[in-house]
Structures are given as structure tokens and as C-alpha cells.
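Can't paste images in this forum, so I'm doing it all in text. The chain is below; anyone willing to post the predicted C-alpha cells underneath?
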Amino acid sequence: MRPFFLMKSLKSNYTSYDIIVLGAGAAGLMAAARLPGCRVLVIDHNAGPGRKIAISGGGRCNVTNAEVGPQHYLGDAGFVEKVLSRFGPDALLAYLRSGGCEPVLRKGRHYFCPESARQLIDFFQSRTAHADFSYESSIESVEKCGERFAVHTSAGRFEAPKVLVATGGLSYAGVGATGIGFAIAEGFGHRIVPPRPALVGLTLQPSEFWMKALSGVSLEAEIAVGRRRLRGDLLFAHRGISGPAVLDASLYWNGGRIIVDFLPGVRLKSLLKNPKKSVMNRLPLPRRFLQAFFDAAEIPNIPYAAMNEAQKQRLSLLKSYALAPAGTFGYARAEVTKGGVATEEIDPRSMESRLVPGLFFAGEVVDVTGRLGGYNFQWAFSSAVTAAKGMADGIIGT
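Text version of the structure:
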């Protein structure tokens, strides 16, 4: 098996193509793989393909989920549903299996690469033998000249009648993420929903600094953000709070309060019936957390029956602790970027721009963002396949 970074580079002196794909991430690779009858050029500023794929899911890449629907995404539900219906989880799994990449199911819902995310990169390597790749090529500008696009890069000028913007978002700056896709779209007149870090930890106001002493402690919690309730593990970190429940909550949080239930699915009073035992000994929560919470709330560790009403009220905050995060851990720690190219300006049947014929979008650059659990890779693949079908239309030999 060749190392993934040796994937075929630009092998010709061609400057003119049927299709130019900007970005060799999940969306760009899938789109190129679905265009075997076209002359395709994929341009990326990294030294090889799939940099974000390689590090996702602890190096195993959570490619999709057993349950996928518009309800798992932040974005226009109708738009998302139309795109997912064209290439959903079953189609994705069948496609990967056809090339020897057999995702495995974890925790009843999450599909991961069987051994390593590089298996997925190798899969795309085998499915894109027809395409040219220009790596370590920075995109300088994209312009439309008549019926063709001119893409100016550090490696030269390339032309095609169709261009796919699959450059991703601003998350994972360590692997070269930039906002070039947003700039290209905006340059062609598209509205950009302001990008923000998502699936990311939340920082704390001074009133919650007591939580910082709990770094490394985790517990199950349910977080309410507006009308949404998100359940999963909450991890206390030195900078604030993280863990799956918090990452999901960050997708919907745009400032203001969140409400945390530290005992989801449990009636607090049902735990406190024994009149002789102190409260702390009756609660199924980590001792470090309880001690810090009791200290911060000024609650004595005595039997519930001995507490006064004010102490009982403060204890009830375990079921409805309100806090207003100060912010997020930022793009450096964010798994995805929410916001992007406004979907009302994209045709969901083809992912083609409604403003500029021949310009297509796929993946994270679009204003559709999924929850934690493989939803964003599924979106990348679904939107890329939809775009590939749209781009192939009208090209001789496809």
C-alpha cells in the first residue's frame, strides 16, 4: 500500500479541462471519483489528499451514521433532504464496499473505517486514476471568461467550463484550512452566512470558573439550547467544557444561555428519600464534581430533610444549571465550520449556483452543518455526488 501522500500528481501539460475541482478533501475526492468519463483536475494547497479525513475520528474517520435525516443538520431542511435523497447512507456504504472499503458499525450507529482513515483515502486514490491532481497549489483567483472559468494558481492558469468549490471551511487550520471558498463564492456575488466555529468546546464566564478545577472529569448530561435538547457526555476541560454533548450544543449556540441537566432522565427527589444519608452520598455523580458544585453553590453536605428551602433550591440546579458561555475554543479546536454559501442560491438538484452557470459547490463550504457522528462526512459525500451528476450533464462521453 502506497503512502497516501504519493497519490498521483499533475501528469500532463494540460491547462484545459472539462471540470476543475477546488479541494482534495472528502467532497472534492468524491466528486472527482464520480466523474470517470471527464477530464478532471483537482487542485489543493496541501501536499496530498484527504488531510482532514486522515485525522478525523481519531484516525478512523466516522464516514456516516445509521440514522441520517434533515433533523441532524443546521440548515434549510428541505434543501438538505433533497441532497441526501440523491446519495444517502445506504448508497454510500454500498459504494465504499464495492471498492473494498468495508466500514464497521460502532455503538449501533457510527460507521468508521475498519482500520484506518487512510483506507478511505486509498479507496479514492483507486477511484480517481482518471483525474489529474495539482498539489501544493495555492488558489489565487477564479474568474469567468465567457463560457469558461480561469483558475489562477501558484502552479499556473487552468481553464474549464465547470468548477466545483469544495474547499471546506475554516476549521482545522493546522491542516491548511482557509476561507478561500467563501471568498470565491462572494466574488461571484453569492451571499455568505457568517462562518463560525462549530462542534467545538465552550469557554466560561468568571461565574463558572469553578468548573476549571474539574479538568478531566466527565459525566452524562443533557444540554438545552433554545428548543433543542442534546444528550451525551460532558467533559470538563481547562479552557471550559467540551465532550459530545457540548460539541453538539455548540452547533446551535449563537450566544446567550444554555441549560445543563447533570442528571438526565433522573428525578432528583427520588434519590434523596433516605432521611439519614447526606445528599452527596445519594447522587450518582463523580465525587470531584459534587464537591466543586456544592462548594460553588454553598450547599452543605447534609441529609436533604435537614436543608432549608434556599439550599434545596440551589441543589435543584443540578437539573437546570443555566450558564452563558463566554465563547468557543475557536477554529483551531473546531471540528467544522457552520455558515457558508447561502443555500437559496444553490440548486439542490445539482449543487449548481443559481447565479453563475457552471459554478458548483459541495461540502463544508455550503451553509449546511451536521451534528457530531458522521453527519458532516455524509453531507460532503452526498453533496459531492449530487454536484458530480450536475457537472457531468452535457459533457461528451459521460
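The longest helix spans residues 375-392. The two ends are 30 Å apart (CA to CA).
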